[in-house]
UniProtKB/TrEMBL annotation:
Record keywords, A-Z: Membrane, Protein transport, Transport
GO biological process: intracellular protein transport; vesicle-mediated transport
Major location (coarse): membrane
Pfam families: Adap_comp_sub
Originating species: Actinidia rufa
Origin: domain of life: Eukaryota
PROSITE patterns referenced in this protein's UniProt entry, alphabetically: CLAT_ADAPTOR_M_1 (PS00990), MHD (PS51072)
Protein name as catalogued: Clathrin adaptor complexes medium subunit family protein
Entry's localization field: Endomembrane system
One cellular component term from this protein's GO annotations in UniProt: clathrin adaptor complex
Length: 280
């Protein structure tokens, strides 16, 4: 909303209450009344609230809140199988359906690994500065509570195979197109390997076993009239690992106050590939 050329209201929660979404009913009313504006003439109650991102007098039948750790891993693995570069960019995503005006406190077991943190406006900055605790009154629905970066120095220079036991959930790996390739014969000791028509390899690992580390090996043949490559190929890898955060970030506890009854709390983690390269 603009007042005399200056931004007055930028909070999405208030804008959603002031500006009705276009639908068939609103179009019929605008034709019947001759009023084509879908902007309310009155300001919502949230404009005078200290928490403008939350609807006042909110009520839910089932009080529940879900916290997801979603991380993207940017890494370079050299031909010896060691990590040359490893960086993780993550987000703490919250899906909140809580009645009234709840007050939440989220703490981590190891907040010292977090760098370049950015917060949602609902987060109180002083508790984080003093005790690395996230104290906030959440918006209703899904939102990004914070984002962070982690260098995961403990992984750099180590063999990738040594950390295969931390991947304890479903994973999918995909190798993108390699130039001058005419034939591929790839096998794995666990899961299913599929060579697609666009020279893409899809490896569905499934649940990773505890007694062995999944590995894939095989042969990539060049075109018949090409004896050698001018450069060593680089593989772009994509993967999704459910149930684990490779930065080793752990949620310690989530406390909820100002609620009429005990809510349900759920936690999940997901790690996926960002810019992930394997050099040959």
């Amino acid at each position: 909303m603009i007042d005399n050329g200056f931004p007055l209201t930028t909070e999405p929660n208030i804008l959603r209450q002031m500006i009705a979404s276009p639908n068939i009913v609103s179009k019929m009313l605008s034709v019947a009344t001759g009023n084509s504006s879908n902007v309310s003439n009155t300001l919502p109650d949230a404009t005078a609230s200290c928490v403008p991102w939350r609807i006042t007098d909110l009520k839910h039948t089932n009080n529940e809140v879900y916290v997801d750790l979603v991380e993207e891993m940017d890494a370079i693995i050299n031909s010896d199988g060691a990590l040359v570069k490893c960086e993780i960019n993550g987000e703490v995503q919250v899906n909140s359906h809580l009645s009234g005006l709840p007050d939440l406190t989220l703490s981590f077991a190891n907040p010292s690994i977090l760098n370049d943190v950015r917060f949602h406006p609902c987060v109180r900055f002083r508790p984080w500065e003093s005790h690395q605790i996230l104290s906030f009154v959440p918006p209703d629905g899904q939102f990004k509570l914070m984002s962070y970066r982690s260098n995961v120095i403990h992984l750099q220079g180590q063999k990738v195979e040594e950390y295969s036991d931390i991947c304890k959930a479903t994973a999918n790996l995909r190798f993108w197109d390699m130039p001058y390739q005419c034939f591929a014969d790839l096998t794995s000791n666990h899961g299913a390997v599929n060579i697609l028509a666009n020279k893409t390899c899809s490896w569905s690992i499934g649940r990773i076993p505890k007694d062995k580390a999944p590995s894939m090996s095989g042969t990539l043949a060049l075109e018949t009239d090409l004896e050698r490559l001018n450069v060593f190929p680089t593989f772009q890898v994509g993967f999704r690992i459910m149930g684990v955060a490779l930065s080793a970030l752990q949620i310690d506890k989530l406390d909820l106050r100002n609620l009429p009854n005990r809510p349900y709390k759920g936690f999940r983690a997901l790690t996926q590939a960002g810019e992930f390269e394997v050099r040959s």
